[in-house]
Amino acid sequence: MDDLVLTGTAGIIGLFFVAVVLIYGAYLIGGLVHAAFVSGEYGVILIVVSVILIAGSLYMATGFWLRKTDRI
To answer: Most buried by CB count within 10 Å: which residue of 3, 11, 32, 68?
Structure first.
């Protein structure tokens, strides 16, 4: 039982750490987009939006592929 508690605690700490890193990354990207918008650098905004759309599309494509191959 102690092993189970230790593993669960480590998992929760890991998930919390990942959540903090992702929130901080979103904060930094939001600051970058805001600074680019204020200074008129619309190319940076276009690149950030493009990267977010590509990442979302890849995430969805992975989900569709996993469904098609009956892995989930």
So the answer is: 32
